[in-house]
Amino acid sequence: MKLTFLGATHEVTGSCFYLEACGKHILIDCGMEQGKDSFENQELPISAAEVDAVLLTHAHMDHAGKLPLLYKQGFRGKIYATYATSALCDLMLRDSAHIQVSEAEWRNRKGKRSGKKPFEPIYDMEDTLATIRRFESHDYEEKFKLYDGIEVRFIDVGHLLGSASIEVWVTEDGVCKKIVFSGDIGNKNQPLINDPKYIDEADYVVMESTYGNRNHGESPDYIGELSRIIQSTFDRGGNVVIPSFAVGRTQVLLYFIRKIKDKHLVKGHGNFKVYVDSPLAIESTQVFHENMVGYFDEEAMALVNRGINPISFPGLITTITSEESKAINFDDDPKIIISASGMCDAGRIRHHLKHNLWRKDSTILFVGHQSHGSLGRMLLDGKSEVKLFGEMIQVEANIERLAGVSGHADKNGLVQWLQSIKKKPDRVFVVHGDDIVCEEFTEYIRKQLGYNAVAPYSGTIYDLKNNKCLVEGERIPVKRRGDKQKVSSVFDRLVNAGKRLMSVIQRNKDGANKDLAKFADQINSLCDKWDK
Q1: Residue 208 pLDDT exceeds 90
Q2: How does strand 273-277 pair with strand 240-243?
Q3: Which pTM was predicted?
Q4: Helix axes 222-236 and 249-262, enclosed angle (nearest 10)
């Protein structure tokens, strides 16, 4: 009964934890590292082919983004998640594969001219579609048997549609321990989705700490502030351009705008148009439509029960094709344009910025976190001109930010979630936060609240049966900043196939002698062919 910490240790992204129990190898999340990382992550200590199952907290790429790579490397087990998480992963992983392949094609066109070796994407659409077929979905609160001695339950954690904390009960050698993986704990009173549900018992807790050293403050008047921005911009004759994350944030905006239209809070502009110009956002909104019951909060469900779609309204226009997207900027009426990406570093939003940044009558409204170095952060920091599609654009538009729109619990919310566990756990592992935040939150709950807490580094291994650290992970700074992605090769694929073969051999050790002899002959025949 061992737990190894691999990703999201003293960092916010790349969530991945490895549980060994009852002879099974289980991953909890398999996320991508995004943005700049501070510390090196340990590799999975077994081959991907030896992983029996993945338990997934939610669909964001820093928790699910490496699942197709795991498949590519030989994983053939099942991925367990809620129904809404499975549906969102179907969209988001395909979108990620498209990005991986497109980037590889661009790098290879560029590299070919300079004689560089071909670059292979970390995974492609074939890997992704095969990964999606491995999902098995479960309801919130449904306790199910994963393997002999291992039971699992997903609990609504209020961060994203379908997001969950995961309860895992392990019984091994007569000893039973309950491990809770918090996932990303949601902010209370978010539109559309439920508040986080609380868990009352656990022997071990692995919990996030994204906002572990600060509070959000009083909840802003989102409707009033958004109405003010729309009204003032439309009165000037301009457009409100909103760079928005396609999944979660876009749907919340539609919920707000429906309320504004319903209450006629914007005066003098009739049934103003709202464009959603992002294929992923449009598909994600459809997933929200299809997963209301059991996922939406009481207020949203009250609308549904009255026959009102909480995220749809007259004047909402969705654009799929590039031609439809381009046509938006030939519409002279004041309008709202919601487009991706949320940080303005790629996607259709850059075209809308090109057409609106120079206009004094338009507003660029940010509704999510903008990482250092992103175009969105540059605009918020007051950049006077930016380069888009090879052209320098003067920033004359009004730059606004809708403060406080966060899907994460703040420090008080994290503490409330933890203290809902009636008896203090044997140990709390603090993860998924910047280095200083992990340290400060761990120190706070240890010294001020009396928890046995630790913030492990990647590579740390704990014996959960005896509550004992077996291996202390090292604080290894990243040597190279920026893109850490390794160049994959066809030889890597061959090596992974070999690892998978060894895994298959081990799993057939109790097979019939006749079948094993046939298997051995097939392997030897293959080796004879290539051993020249």
Answers
A1: yes
A2: unpaired
A3: 0.87
A4: 80
